[in-house]
Amino acid sequence: MSPHATDPDTSTSYSNYTSAISERLPHTDAQVPAHRLREFELKGGVFVVTGGAQGLGLTLAEALVEAGGIVYCLDIQKEPTAPFYETQGRVAKQFGGSLSYRHVDVQNAELVDEVIASIAAEHSRLDGLVAAAGIQNVKPALEFTPNDIDRMMGVNFKGVFHSAVSCAKQMIKYKTPGSMVLIGSMSGLNANKGLNSSIYNSSKAAVIQLGRNLAMEWCKAVETSEGKKPIRVNVLCPGNIMTPMVENDFKNDPSLRKTWEEANMLGRISEMKEYRGAVLFMLSDASSFMTASHLVIDGGYTAW
User: Fold this and answer.
1) pLDDT tens for residues 129-148?
2) DSSP letters along 90-102, please?
3) Of the four, 226, 231, 242, 275, which is 20 to 30 A from 297 by CA?
4) What is the CATH number of the domain that holds 232?
5) pTM of the entire structure?
6) Which strand (E) or helix (H) includes residue 257?
7) Residues belonging to the active site
């Protein structure tokens, strides 16, 4: 029977039938709003990204600027890399946000406090943090010295802690509830095939636990005219990413890439850009009911 024919038993014209799906779709003549998915917008918000001179930190910072954020990258380098300046010039012209740089060693709690306080004071607000600063040291556990351990934990754990606490102080001061994304790793959940990185993995496990506890402490930390509001804290746990750090691992051990590619379900190493959407979700109002969670994006590595 033709879809536009009349059913002789019911005398109902199928051409007049409206499906449940079509009822939910906008009419072709209806005006479409100028903005969709507003909950992902960061327009006017002020954000700090540690480890933002290059690599994953810079890639994530770029995404925040594209969403309208006023973004400050903090890193140990006195001057950022060439990719930073290229990104800064491009996003400044195309989007409503901005990208700036501050020289900071995240191990220096006093300096971190000072720099983040100055950023917040300039805008009378602070809305979020991406704590992406981190280092790696690949060698057998039997060869690690106490100084090796202190240095890695100093950046990967203490640096994250200092950054989060400094940002929380300013959010509370300026009454701006917001969100933090601590960069953990799937390495905080398992051992990496073919890679001797016991201290690195332990530092990332510590970050995952830190996220839970800070989320608990700060769930009603910000006093506003509408009552107590949260500083949401979540942890992003990426899988193997093609970063300068990983490229160095492959240089030192050419067989490692094949081992890692075969260890996840998608059979490849991820790219830094594949985490942009996740961080934007976690920082924005799109994740307003998410806190104390860790989001694993690892191509199925940890699901075997």
Assistant:
1) 999 999 999 999 999 999 99
2) HHHHHSS-EEEEE
3) 231
4) 3.40.50.720
5) 0.88
6) helix 256-263
7) 200, 204
